[in-house]
Specification:
alpha/beta, Dehydroquinate synthase-like, alpha domain, 6-stranded parallel sheet, Rossmann fold, 3-stranded mixed sheet
């Protein structure tokens, strides 16, 4: 029997046959990382020739006492800004359209997104609208953006979406109730500032859901059919950082080392996502957000172990590698057994940070599962990236398992 031996020195071997790989990596964002790096904000605005800033801010930052840490550098440098903090956890297209009108009326030539993924996605869309015009709905899909936006500077205050280095902005379409994204190179931010001190006040529940969201990005990118040598390096480093530090950050939000590791892990997960894409977990999470308002990170977190169990036969070797990175003892296991322990590791990690075990725990009605499955399969790019090609019946079975808490699939 073939045995799986983990060569963790420090990571498993990257996918072999590099000579057969063809890939292009475009990741232009300037990254500033470090405690106190928010003090560089005014200089960053000047570096990209901004004079009037449109500041898109998560409203929770005011309650957390963080808002002043972001506005102070602008005020100290006498940089005028317009604050836009009407941001929902699952933003609709109208938020981008409204922000665009306000930014245009105030003559803003630089956009800052501060907060979680929602604030950053809205900021990216507004920056594009300022140069392209029209409405946000006009740019849903892939490569529909003709012109570069005004300079975009992202300041993540949670360790989750990786939106600070991706070419995507995701919204709920109010007319259809569906969730979809703008995708294209002009959405890459020009710069991002990652200051771990800004994440210290993140509540435990949000720490958990955004942290597993970041883990999902890295894990799905690693097993994506589009994965390559560079994306895999990002993925493995992100998975290692997040899996070791998320429980620490959840247990003690003031653990600056854990917070720093989580923010770096989220960044690398975002770079992996941008390079190789995500998979079926994301496709199945979209209707949960669009239909029931479930936060994206939480939806990903609950679905993750169930989708991974379904995916195992698509690439057992990679899932065996992931089990080792997630801390499972795999040296004496077969490849199949090691891969299966990856699912066990994910259930254990979720439980350790208080993630609900089932869709029923989230209040999702079982009778809506067929409709969710139908919508999930329309999210074509993640479905195409998935290591196992799902049918409608397969997706229904996964949702049903996630609803009931079962872990044995009838495949």
């Amino acid at each position: 029997m073939k045995r799986f031996t983990s060569p963790l020195t420090p990571y498993p071997t990257i996918t072999p046959m590099i000579h057969s790989q063809t890939f292009t990596v475009t990741q232009p964002t300037r990254i500033q990382f470090g405690v106190g790096s928010i003090s560089n904000l005014a200089q960053t605005v000047h570096d990209f020739h901004g004079s009037k800033v449109f500041l898109v801010m998560d409203p929770g930052l005011v309650n957390a006492g963080i808002a002043s840490q972001i506005t102070a550098p602008l005020e100290n440098a006498a940089i005028p800004y317009t604050l836009y903090d009407s941001i929902d956890p699952e933003p609709g297209l109208k938020l981008a359209d409204k922000g665009y009108k306000l930014a245009k009326a105030n003559g803003c030539d630089c956009v800052i997104g501060a907060g979680g993924g929602s604030a950053m996605d809205v900021a990216k869309a507004i920056a594009i609208l300022l140069t392209n015009g029209g409405k946000a709905a006009d740019y849903l899909g892939l490569d529909k953006i003709a012109k570069a936006g005004v300079p975009k500077i992202m300041i993540p205050t949670s360790a989750g979406t990786g939106a600070e280095v991706t070419f995507t902005a995701v919204f709920i379409n109010e007319k259809t109730g569906s969730k979809g994204g703008m995708n294209g190179a002009p959405l890459y931010p020009e710069a991002t500032i990652l200051d771990p001190a800004l994440t210290l006040s993140l509540p435990p529940q949000v720490t958990a859901s955004t942290g597993i969201d970041a883990l999902t990005h890295a894990l799905e990118a690693y097993t994506s059919t589009q994965a390559h040598a560079i994306s895999e390096m990002y993925s493995l480093e992100a998975i290692d950082l997040i899996s070791r530090n998320l429980p620490k950050a959840y247990a003690n939000g003031n653990n600056l080392e854990a917070r720093s590791a989580m923010l770096l892990g989220s960044l690398l997960g975002g770079k992996a996502l941008a390079a190789a894409g995500v998979g079926l977990v994301h496709a199945m999470a979209y209707p949960m957000g669009g239909m029931f308002g479930i936060a994206h990170g939480l939806a990903n977190a609950v679905l993750l172990p169930y989708v991974i169990e379904y995916n195992l036969i698509g690439n057992r070797e990679k899932f065996a590698t992931l089990a080792a990175v997630l801390g499972k003892k795999t040296e004496e296991l077969s490849v199949k057994e090691a891969a299966e322990s990856c699912v066990e590791a994910l259930f254990e990690l979720n439980a350790s940070v208080g993630i609900p075990a089932t869709l029923e725990d989230l209040g999702i009605p079982a009778d809506q599962i067929p409709e969710m499955a139908r919508i999930a399969l329309t999210v074509t790019r993640p479905v195409e990236n998935n290591p196992r090609k799902p049918s409608l019946e397969d997706v229904i079975h996964i949702y049903e398992a996630a609803f009931a808490g079962g872990s044995d699939f009838p495949f």
